[in-house]
Task: structure prediction
Amino acid sequence: MKANTPSLILYFLALTFAIIFDFLKEDFIGMYAKAIVVPSIFIYYLITTNYKISLIQGFIFAFCFTGEVFNLMEVEATELGSLFCFLSVYLLFLRLIYDDYRKIKLRKNDLLPVGIVVVFILYLLISVLGLQYEKVNEYHLIYTIYGIVLSILGCVSFISYITKGTYLTLLLTLMTACFIFSDIFFIFNQSFDHSIVLVLIRDVTQMLAYYFMVRYFIQKRIENIRVRQ
Result:
């Protein structure tokens, strides 16, 4: 067994138990399962990379964990704290992929799929923000900024995959798609009657986003080592 295998097994066990206890509506037990998702996938990343991690990656993990802690707490600052944490994650990711995005060159064949992606993401942004604005909420401006940043990250990720089509950009796209769907179903769950299906989709996509995020970090590191050689 590889040294990183136990932490990966722990991650998938936490994911499985979180799904089961969400379905059983055992929030208290499910909370503990969700609490170990980010630490377990973080340990998996550290062991896989021989404990080498960049400053930006470290902050991303820290904000993801803090954001999850806010989600599990039922206090007044829960919503605002979680928003700021994941907004920071998306901003750091934009900084992380900025240099790669500058190298993107659109071909004529890419214009149509890129246009469809941008229009679709804008449609999702406007529709979801419209649902949020129907609520009496003092955080409308923060949600707007949050939605715009996530939409930009989504556009960058999908455009990168359309133009390059590499395994690395696929991982980035899967991660971003999971974050987008998780946030969409979080809003749905707030806007409509409580549904176990909405909760399950939200939690599963959120936790899968962490897996794709770590796989992206690992693949990016592998490619950087190849370039240096």
